[in-house]
Give the backbone structure.
Amino acid sequence: MSGTVGAPVSRIEGLSKVTGEARYAADFPLAGLAHGWIVQSTIARGRVESVDAGAALQMPGVLAVVTATNAMRLQDVDDGELLVLQDQQVHYRGQTVALVVGDTLEQARAAADGLPVEYQAEPHDVLLSASHPRLFAPDHVNPNLPTDTLTGDVEAGLAGAAVTVDHTYSTPAEHNNPMEPHATTAFWDGDRLTVYDSNQGATRVHQALVRLFGLEDSAVRVVSEHVGGGFGSKGGARSQAVLAAMAARMLGRPIRVVLSRKQLFSLVGYRTPTIQRVRLGSDRGGRLVALDHQVVEQTSTVYEFAEQTAVFSRVMYATPNLSTSHRLVALDVPTPRWMRAPGEAPGSFAVESAMDELAEACGVDPIELRIRNEPVTEPEGGRPFSSRNLIACLREGASRFRWAERDPRPGTRRDGQWLMGTGVAASTYPARSAPSTASVSAQEDGSFIVRLTAADIGTGARTALTQVAADELQVPMDKVEVRIGDSDFGPAMIAGGSMGMASWGWVVVKACRQLIADIDRCGGVPDDGLVARADTADDIAAQADLVRHSFGAQFAEVRVDVDTGEIRVPRLLGVFAAGRIVNAKTARSQLIGGMTMGLSMALFEESLMDAEFGDYLNHDFAGYHIAANADVQRIDATWIDEEDDQLNPLGVKGIGEIGIVGTAAAIANAVYHATGQRQRHLPIRPDRVLSP
Amino acid sequence: MTDPYSLTVNGTDHQVVDAWLGESLLYVLRERLGLPGSKAGCEQGECGSCSVIVDGSLECACLILAAAAVGCDITTVEGLQPGRGDFTTVQEAFIAEGAVQCGFCTPGLVVALTDLLARVPHPSDLEVREAISGNLCRCTGYGRILAAAQAAAKAASDE
Amino acid sequence: MTILSPTSIDEAVAALADPAIQVLAGGTDFMVEVNAGHRRPDKVLSLRHIPELRTWEQLPARDDPAHVRLGATVTYTDMLQPDLAQLLPALAHAARTVGSPQIRNAGTIGGNLATASPAGDTLPVLAALEAVVEVASPLGVRDIPVATFITGPKRTALSPGELIVAVRLPLLDGHQEFRKIGVRNAMVIAVASLALAVDTRTRTVRCALGSVGPGPIRATEAEEWLAGTIDWDRPAATTEAPDLAYFGRLVAGAAQPIDDHRGTAAYRRHAIGVLAERAAAQAFGAGSAA
């Protein structure tokens, strides 16, 4: 039987999504359901002195006002964002200070809007700067990487370099903004808690609720069948799940807590703003002799989140002298979290822009510059790569994009009011796997059911895993049902870090192979069926110590209005080397989606901190722009065939993040090529184009 | 509480009782009428996830005061299907062309393109882009959605 | 709590005798405020079911000067229909840049006036055309020129108990257009916008600016300079082109922009000058339309 892996299979749950039948976390009808509405602090630092619930409780339909004085006590966990309503401290503007519960959502909101909350305010500190007096070096950066690295002598390297580039780049706070706001519907059946929750992995939410409420694993079930996107913001439990579970326990009724778009801007995370100094030194031919990447970024006072922005520099280019560093400041702001390609997305903007500046300074073509600096082994640490096909991506892209016809001189192509230019940047993202469990059961009718706590947040995981299982079991896809998004199926990796398919595919392959062996041993499927379970923890621990990364090349063409600074992007091309592609249809769309988010990052996305109030002021879709279809013209993503047997049994590297890495730099480099003005700060707004 | 009123949704009259006057059509559809196919993405008319057709006009359900829609003919995504398990050419094209990812924006897009094809059977690329200019998608980058719209238009004209 | 959905203007005006009643037209601003918890209506007057407010008419030529009278709930989509768009091209341009099909189907000209947002897309057009707002109350109907109707950001001359029932716009003979700059290509709030209208009969140029001040701003000095520079008796293509860059500078000088998250004041002033120069080039430059 020919395999389905690699084929452009249509999405299995497509019908339920196009008809509106698919149920998301806020869609489940439950008898007796009540609704919680979050009341947020209006100061950025201080204490809640009092919450006067008297009038609210007299309003029609209002069932409870949960505050720090009457909230259920939670067990301590290491994430202060989850310890909601446990004390009176206010750590940032927008923090939850009460939950009003009503028979209807409108009744809860009406009471919440007028709820009198008295504060003792203290002066707040919400602005990131490279000279902030409270900068510190965290113990490590995410996920558990060294804060600083040093190979060789960077200062000596720079001092002796024939050509140097030394610039500071910045990226703003950006908010994930999945289309589905975070939501949880929770109910208790005796001492067993069930939540319908919008997340990127039910296992993490399950673990958090088990710990917070001091329950047995078996007493909590998290169900997340359909999830309306996450992009990192749903990577772990968020406080609405805790509040819904808490209120449901206190009131003995099912409770739903849904966040508004505005609430997402303070309660579920965002990408930290970054200030990045990049220093490059090279010979006249552009061969690097030194690379220094210094990052300043923020965290909150509730939870230390240290984005790994400079790790991009640790894998990209060969240089004898290489240093990277991260410094944080804990501000009175909401906690930054993962956002698509945490680390690599902002880090690549700085380094790939700097590489373009170096190419210009050396008079070397930017693609040739990258080829000249291709390392044999990992630049920081010296480990071998499992596979590295950056140059193949650059060359394939150059051919498709007709790069050879490019005139390198900036600011020389004009079509009426439009200046035109093209740019290139490289991208990379780690290809990791994490331990997961799964079961596969053979039914007596010849069909199979796969169960694992995977999440399909729009990636197509449900469909791709069905393809994988069908191929392993050597049956057509319609004989396999893959059930996901239910913590009762056992622990599994989240849909995050581009690790979903690698982790889940691995355990599904393992479980299927186990089942086939069991069937062979039994001489067939017994009347009562057969179940095989698998766990990949040992397999992953036994992997060789290699650097596993996907790579890619991003090409952009821009048109810049010479008078107004408006930018159009008529063409984007991404070429990726990401191991094996399981589903060509869902993969292409996901890569293009990542590139589109990169375009959005380059031109539009920017959460603006109001220093006086300590709040992100453009906290809705009218103020925070994400790319609309009119902003997107020709975007194509393609990949080169890459076989890598050092990854996982499927040979996949993951494609969730790499599409966004490097896109903003490619666009910024194209804007330079069009205008002759370097853009070192995102987003590239029209006013910055005219006065950078 | 307002006086009870009746809304005509997908050809069926629904009584709305004990509602607050300020409730949007989106809220009433989702919370009172058991029709959660229309999604709440922004509640300010910016994302299009709650698009519905009211008296032949595409609108955001979040920007319609439900009590003001009495007497209007309202169609939601749930009302497009010819029958359970069946689907329209627009819906079929969305699946076949890979225009669906997380699916949260999908109902609004399907309604918007259904409205377009009802008015303009053979839309140009520009007309398709214009028709969905108010529908935000964070997953797909829009390419497959535009392809689905053209495929649906072609399928409709081939029938 | 009540909602009134009258079917005639007279009924609607009578309902406004209740000072607590809130007027709902297309809902595109009203419902955003309700959904955000900033407005909690107890009594609503819905204009959705008043057919006469949704109509427009071209008044007879003997009614000099000829004009178009738009009912208050004429939508942006209505303004784009060819028969109306050809009479009021700048208004159609402005309507096309509004939001999305969903917003254009719901939003109304009366609503745009009543909200009086500095970024209201039709307002520069109404200001340039010197539109007149017809306002009804139990005392009768009064006319308010749009220049005095908008008194500041989100403030109007509308008194309690008054309802916008129509807007009258003169029919001009000459080129007119609307231009807008926003960050994104669709669904965008203007960073700067401009309406330009030429009237060859009166030999005047009208130019109004949006998003660069508390309300729409007429660039009168620039208008007069341009009208005085043009040779109205000869086709533009045969005469020496006027110094349109100077016109742009005069228009930029009329702007009163502020810094906000959508753009700096300096950028807005620069951008409005660019829009003015381009609009004037379209009207009076070589190969121009006028």
Q: What stands out?
A: The CA atoms of residues 7 and 51 of chain C lie 7 Å apart. Residues 265-284 of chain C form the longest helix (20 residues).
